[in-house]
Amino acid sequence: MAVDRPDGHAAAIHYVRQAIGPRKIALSTLPMAAAIQFFRGTDEPVVPDIRLTRSRDGRTGQATFVFEEPKALAPESFGDITGMFLVDEEGELVSREVNARFVNGKASALEATYTWKTTADFERFMRFAQRYAESHGLGFSGGPEKEAQEDSEA
Q1: Which of 13, 44, 88, 98 could lock onto 34 through a cystine, CB 3.0 to 4.6 A?
Q2: 70 vs 65: CA distance, rounded Å
Q3: β strands within 32-122, DSSP E
Q4: Coil, helix or strand for 107?
Q5: How confident is the prediction along the chain (154 residues), in pLDDT tens digits per residue?
Q6: CB 61 within 8 A of CB 122
Q7: Under 8 Å CB-to-CB from 109, ≥6 apart: which residues?
Q8: What pTM was estimated for this model as a whole?
Q9: Which domains are assigned to the chain?
C-alpha cells in the first residue's frame, strides 16, 4: 500500500502475515520520480531534447529543452504557462524562460532554458537530469569531444 507524505515521497507500508494476523513491520521511503511540469502538479509526458552548454571554467552554463508538440500546448491545457518546473526528490528547479515556437500560426513546440551560475547549481541540475533519465528509460549521449574519446578507446 502506498501513502503520499507531505515531503513529496511515497511511503510504502509492508504487511507480514503471522499466526495472529497481519502487522505493520516496515515503513520505507520510495524516491519520487523526476518530472518536468509546466503546470504545477501536472507532469509533461513529452520527453524533450536537452542540450547543455557550459563556460570554459565550468561554473556557469545552461540547459536548453525543446518539447515537440507537448501536451502543455493542447487546447484543453490548464492556462498560461508561467515557467518550467523540474521536480524530483530533492525539490524543484525553476526556469521562467519558456517560449513557444509557431508554425503556420499554430504553437508546435516549447523551448525552455534553465541557467546555472555556480558549480553547485550545475551538480544539482545533473542530479535531476540523471533521475529524469532513469525514470523515463533514457540515457545520456556526449557531444563530439566525448564521442571522439570513446572512438579512440575502442
Answers
A1: 88
A2: 12
A3: 35-39, 42-43, 49-54, 61-68, 84-88, 91-95, 97-103, 106-116
A4: strand
A5: 444 444 444 443 333 334 444 444 444 455 578 999 999 999 999 999 999 999 999 899 999 999 999 999 988 876 889 999 999 999 999 999 999 999 998 889 999 999 999 999 999 999 999 999 999 888 766 555 444 444 444 4
A6: yes
A7: 66, 67, 68, 69, 70, 73, 100, 101
A8: 0.70
A9: 1-30 (no CATH), 32-136 (2.40.30.220)
HSE, side-chain direction, 13 A CA sphere, residue 66 = 7
Q: Which three cell numbers stand for residue 80?
A: 498560461
Assign 96 to helix, strand or coil.
coil
Place of cell 501536451: 71
Sheet holding 35-39, edge to edge: 42-43, 35-39, 84-88, 91-95
Half-sphere exposure of 109 (CA within 13 A, CB side): 12
- Give the single-character DSSP code of 47: P
Phi and psi at 151, nearest 5°, equal -65, -40
Please give the grid coordinates belonging to residue 86: 523540474
For residue 85, what is its C-alpha cell?
A: 518546473
